[in-house]
Amino acid sequence: MSDPTPSNGPPSSAATLRADTQLRAIIESLADGILIVDAEGLIQFANPAAGRLFTRTPEALVGTPVGTPVVGGETTEMEIVRRGGGEVVYAELRVVDIEWESRAVKLVSLRDVTDRKYAEERSRQLTHERDARLKAEAASRAKSDFLAIMSHELRTPLNAILGYSELVELGISGEISDTIRDQMGRVRRAAKHLLGLVNDILDLAKFEAGRLVVANTPAVAAEAVASALALVQPQAEARNLTLAVTPEVNELPPYIGDEERVRQILVNLLSNAVKCTDPGGSITIDGEMTTTPDPRARLQPRRAHLRLSIIDTGTGIAPEKLAAIFEPFVQAEQGPTRPREGSGLGLTIGLRLARAMGGDLTVESTVGIGSIFTLWLPANDANSDVNAAEVEGVRRRPSRALESMRNVEGLMELSNQLVMRLRPLVDVVVARIRADTQIEIASGLRTSQVTDHLTTLLADIAGALVVIEEVNGEPSALLADAVEIQRMIAERHGAQRARLGWTETSLRREFMIIREELELAVMSCMPAGKVLQPNEALAIIGRFIDQAEYLSVRGLERTRTN
Known about the structure:
With about 550 residues, the protein is α+β, with helices and mostly antiparallel strands. The chain has four domains: about 15-115, 2-Layer Sandwich (Beta-Lactamase), CATH 3.30.450.20; about 145-210; about 215-390, Heat Shock Protein 90 (2-Layer Sandwich), CATH 3.30.565; about 410-560, Orthogonal Bundle (Globin-like). Helix 15 (about 475-500) packs across helix 17. It has helices at about 15-30, 50-55, 60, 115-170, 180-210, 220-240, 245-250, 260-275, 345-355, 385-390, 410-420, 420-435, 445-450, 455-465, 475-500, 505-525, 535-560, and strands at about 35, 45, 75-80, 90-100, 105-110, 215-220, 240-245, 255, 280-290, 305-310, 360-365, 370-380, 470, 475.
């Protein structure tokens, strides 16, 4: 007797149902999104993974179009804009023809490849940045070579003109008339003015290349003030101006910075005040040490600063021009008929020098009444008796002076501890950035985008602790290499932030968070039983972060303007 159901015939409806049920169970358990799409392109079934990918329930997807043509046997990619935050994810689609519930349909497999897409994009960006960096470095080397040549070629003849004009003016080569002496004096003054312009341009070029080095050693403000006054006094007397210094200036404690550069800033500020003050007016230098500086000054929090103010009774500056006067080649009075000479570089260089020393340069002005230019410098906390009383109960930042590192083993141990804690440190910094109300743009970014160069930047700063070796304020070759690496990282970080739409305010807030968390990490990692003091390590790190912030902002600005 034969079997009523042929072995090679169609399966029974019960067997088909069991197969469909098993297939549905398998599909629902898959990690990849699965869609069953009919001939009209409408979704007939979606598994939970597909629902998560579209941020909708599987039931809500049924009956909706898949949104892209699907052809059996093909592999393609699609962008999915998620509901709510508008986040875009990328999915890889693989399409096969199958039979589903006795109908010919297409099974669409969706795999989230967002991380891969971002990795590919980052790889392209890194390649582009590397090529751009190589070109920029080649251009920078060419500019540096050019500046070195021009420095010699311009300064040598100018110094010769100055020297010979002085010799002639003094009568060394023979008796001269008063007329010739007056003319030689004009030649000497013109050559001195031209030499000053050359020096300003070279300083600005060094700043742009990130190669200008300033010393960070204790110095007395009264000495810099006295030296600057001696240089400006003849100009003030010629214009019948009164120069005065308040007694408080001579009582100021030491500051931390570069004495020669501080004198340069003061000379420029005093010279500007002399030029802008009408005969019979006055110029006063006032000073104090304070822990509550002008909120407009960009200074390190929780530490004392010296304030040196140049107060004049000059013509003043219009409010709309105050911000622009610190830009290169910008002057309050423009045009060929402007009454005062100058290149418009003095305030630009003064501002950058002040910030390179951990201070700032600010201005207040009223048209017709006068101006107040204020130089802020970090106080030498270790040598200040007043500071301890003024900052009682407030956590102070130590001096930024890079003094002799007295315990190399302590630095190496601290560096190793920081590197070991790098991952948690980066996580804390990223979490604070994403939650900060002043950096709203960060909340909608992926973690990899926020992290960007942070890990490398912090690792290099931690590693730099073991290569510090300064003699009279000049960095060693090893330290110079470390700073050069950090310079490239910082500039690329700023460029990446610009491409993501960050503002300068957001970027500076990010560095404030980095500074605070890195300080806390240093204090918790300080090696026990070592001569190394916390202020020594914090001083080094503070300097690196200041430089990184400056370079990152510059990278952001350049990217936004290109």
